[in-house]
């Protein structure tokens, strides 16, 4: 009994656990990795933001998008032979529009104003719509970019773009641009008021207008065909005179397209037709 009482009692076995150094490592290493990951993510996001951020008034570098020696005739030729025939890529259109310098007002209408502008030293016509006429702008740009619409007696479309204008009181408003070929003689209406046309000149003008109208009306059937188009506002003010005495049909904002497969016409929502007399 005495032996039993004096025998040393067994100590409980030490439970396995983490040392202070191990706990420090386990806590600090994931924390440091997390901080490094967050910093890398922020740097990547900032890098992409700086690479793509661009002031809306600063045009992209057009030298990277098109050859510097290309003129308007080359661009229009590219539109005609690119396969689709529906115009240049939107980025190129945006580049062209934002590198145009407006020179002077050459006309006004219900939509807004027409300006003569300069692009790479060449004259272009810029039709400027107000933001409240966005539907008209979009409709006319859509018609001009119809596949296979390009024709020598239809106004040569170049680009469409929307351009933000900053005001002095920190406000802004949007201009909607349609860029096309510039014809110094202006409309047929103005031309006939300034000049006397010979019989031969009259026949050339009439034939070119009829040729352009026939191309509009004609349906081209194919994999990428052209629908029949009705102008609906043909008048002397919507026909422009070239330097060589031929004419081109312009102002396609009220035009409609006919879908022969469904026998339907895409009449725009504004329901305007022609010009009031």
UniProtKB/TrEMBL annotation:
SMART domains: GS, S_TKc
TM ranges: 21-42
Listed EC numbers: 2.7.11.30
PROSITE patterns linked: GS, PROTEIN_KINASE_ATP, PROTEIN_KINASE_DOM, PROTEIN_KINASE_ST
The keyword Signal is assigned to this record: yes
SUPFAM superfamilies: Protein kinase-like (PK-like)
Protein family according to the UniProt entry: Belongs to the protein kinase superfamily. TKL Ser/Thr protein kinase family. TGFB receptor subfamily.
Protein name: receptor protein serine/threonine kinase
Membrane topology: Single-pass type I membrane protein
Occurrences of domain Protein kinase (ranges): 100-277
4Fe-4S recorded as keyword: no
């Amino acid at each position: 009994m005495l032996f039993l009482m004096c025998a040393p009692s067994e100590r409980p076995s030490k439970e396995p656990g983490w040392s202070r150094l191990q706990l420090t490592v386990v806590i600090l290493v994931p924390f440091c990795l997390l901080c490094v990951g967050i910093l890398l993510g922020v740097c990547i996001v900032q890098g992409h933001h700086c690479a793509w951020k661009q002031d809306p008034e600063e045009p992209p570098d057009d030298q990277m998008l098109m050859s510097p020696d290309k003129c308007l005739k080359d661009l229009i030729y590219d539109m005609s032979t690119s396969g689709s025939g529906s115009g240049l890529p939107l980025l190129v259109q945006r580049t062209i529009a934002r590198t145009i310098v407006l020179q002077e007002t050459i006309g006004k209408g219900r939509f807004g104003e027409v300006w003569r502008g300069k692009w790479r030293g060449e004259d272009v016509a810029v039709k400027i719509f107000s933001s409240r006429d966005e539907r008209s702008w979009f409709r006319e740009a859509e018609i001009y970019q119809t596949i296979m619409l390009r024709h020598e007696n239809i106004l040569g479309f170049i680009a469409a773009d929307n351009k933000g204008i900053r005001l002095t009181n920190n406000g802004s408003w949007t201009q909607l641009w349609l860029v096309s070929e510039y014809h110094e003689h202006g409309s047929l209406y103005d031309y006939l008021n300034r000049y006397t046309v010979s019989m031969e000149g009259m026949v050339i003008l009439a034939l070119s207008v009829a040729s352009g109208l026939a191309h509009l009306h004609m349906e081209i059937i194919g994999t990428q065909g052209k629908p029949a188009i009705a102008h609906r506002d043909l008048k002397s003010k919507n026909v422009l005179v070239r330097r060589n005495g031929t004419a081109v049909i312009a102002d396609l904002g009220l035009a409609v397209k006919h879908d022969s497969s469904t026998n339907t016409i895409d009449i725009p929502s504004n329901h305007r037709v022609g010009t009031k007399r």
